[in-house]
Amino acid sequence: MKYFLLTLGCQMNLSDSERVASVLDAAGCTKVDNEEDANIIGILACSVRQKAIDKVYNKISKWNKWKNNKNLITFISGCILPADKEKFLKLFDIVFAMPELPQFPKMLGEYGVTNPLSLIAEPNNTIDEIQLFWNVKPKYDSNFEAFIPIQNGCNKFCTYCAVPYTRGREVSRPSQEILDEVRSLAEKGYKSITLLGQNVNSYGLDKKGDELTFPELLEKVGQIGEEVNKEFWVYFTSPHPRDMTDDIFHIIAKYDCLGKQIHFPIQSGDEKVLIKMNRNHSLEKYRKTMQSFRSILPQATVFTDIIVGFTDETEEQFENTRKAMEEFKYNMAYIAMYSPRPGAASYRWEDNIPLEEKKRRFAVLSDELQKHTYEYNKSLVGKTIKVLIREKDRKPGYLSGHTAGKIVIRLESDDLSLIGQIVELKVTGAARFSIEGELVEKTVNC
């Protein structure tokens, strides 16, 4: 049997898809790159964004028509709201929650797919389910970049967010498993490793006294970096401002292997909107944390998330967000136009900012962002920096990668052996969202 996987949404879904692929491979199936060639087609869905759900409906409508001419099994998992799940049960052959992945081979067996896997022991509760899921060894999509889930779920209940309803409450993965996976990947030569969670800096708080805290986990990761004689960078996403502490910044500064970049969502620069979003932190708290970050890690970059057009957001409140962008000078911002999601608290409220106004605000923030990204990128021109080469660039004859601070950089080269290597480049040019460089030395550390 041949299978095709479509992954939508965040990096957590990408990580989950690697475990789905591992289970299907172990069941004797073969992955293909084109959905037309597959007998089993699955989606890792994302109920957090309406656009992603719309894509699911478009795909399954097409795939179900194919069943008139070929044998085809369809399945869906990922981040799915209960309301969406009810609809998907009528459209897909198999619908399962991600913690149920170890039972997936049995589900396929009911459709006549024979496989050599025996059923993994039945879980006793939700935490057992998640642990069994984490025990599935992922089939990494890359041989130099990897994602490591460190927790599942979210306890924050931001009013706009569906994640607590799609993934449940926070459960921390055992730290020894995480550290073993980091060490294994580093020793195999992986160059970029990202620790994943909905609120990574609340890691361990659900097992207080019995598990490491997030700063302690980072410290252990840093020590692995000193022990393994290979160069690699470790990142994490996403932290929450409420739980962010200065000791995290000091630990990042202490160890070379901890990437000098953080993703630090602000969502809004207005106090009243932050309260309405139930973010449970003030703008002043965010500001003080950013000041500490800049003081302790002056060379590091910072990315953020922002929502425009949240329910009742006034022009003055939006202007406060623009001022916050001007103040904090982000290196990247992922700006989203608000769309209500069933299950989230804000779904009950009127979505009363017109789409055209949301688009205008999106454009204003995009313009503000570009001012600061361009200034920062220009400051790198003439410097020699380390870069992870990731892939062929869209521009013929070029490769692309990112710096330790995750700034995108292009290199004029057709040497594909550089892909997956950390090299030194001299920065020769700058654009708004990227820089360009020339090779100084082929590899720093293989």
TrEMBL record:
GO terms for molecular function: 4 iron, 4 sulfur cluster binding; metal ion binding; tRNA-2-methylthio-N(6)-dimethylallyladenosine(37) synthase activity. Residues 378-441 form the TRAM domain. Keywords: 4Fe-4S, Cytoplasm, Iron, Iron-sulfur, Metal-binding, S-adenosyl-L-methionine, Transferase. The keyword RNA-binding does not apply. Gene3D superfamilies: Methylthiotransferase, N-terminal domain, tm_1862 like domain. Catalyzes the methylthiolation of N6-(dimethylallyl)adenosine (i(6)A), leading to the formation of 2-methylthio-N6-(dimethylallyl)adenosine (ms(2)i(6)A) at position 37 in tRNAs that read codons beginning with uridine. This is tRNA-2-methylthio-N(6)-dimethylallyladenosine synthase. It is an enzyme of class 2 (transferase). Residues 1-113 form the MTTase N-terminal domain. Its cofactor is [4Fe-4S] cluster. PROSITE patterns: MTTASE_N, MTTASE_RADICAL, RADICAL_SAM, TRAM. Residues 140-375 form the Radical SAM core domain. The keyword Nucleus does not apply. It comes from Plebeiibacterium sediminum. InterPro entries: Elp3/MiaA/NifB-like_rSAM, Methylthiotransferase, Methylthiotransferase_CS, Methylthiotransferase_N, Methylthiotransferase_N_sf, rSAM, rSAM_horseshoe, rSAM_sf. GO terms for cellular component: cytosol. Pfam families: Radical_SAM, TRAM, UPF0004. SUPFAM superfamilies: Radical SAM enzymes (SSF102114). Its EC number is 2.8.4.3.
